[in-house]
Amino acid sequence: MPETGARVDPLLGFRFRVTFDDLPPAGFSECGGLQVETDVFEYAEGGGNSNVLRFPTRTRHASITLRRGIAGRVYWDWYDDVVDGLIRQRNGTIAILKPDGGGVAAEWQVRDAFPCKWVGPDLVADQSTVAVETVELCHHGLRRRT
Questions:
Q1: Among 51, 84, 97, 127, which residue's CB has the most CB atoms within a 10 Å radius?
Q2: Structural domain containing residue 99
Q3: 106 alpha carbon, distance to own chain's centre
């Protein structure tokens, strides 16, 4: 009987860690925006009517969105500094942890990030939900490490 090889399961997205340079560790319930997109310039070559030539141009990185229950003011203070004109860019990592929690299965490095949007919680008197803040981070690059 032929061997099928080692089974490799996809990574699970619920066990992750987000850290930034000098900020204390913070738990997040959601992390989105790990997205990179390259614009394409299309050139219709004269006489070659069977296809359009396509060339890569600029690459854009989407903003990273982090959501968590309000547990302190570290991310508010970081954004408030931006409002006051003090831009503190920080490098960080977003890591998916192995299923057993012991080590990193995949990791992305974020370069020169700064908060560009902060959204406070929806407050509803007849519900007992967690007050959640959302922080959007603009950055200058995303690299996959592992």
A1: 97
A2: 16-33+62-144
A3: 13
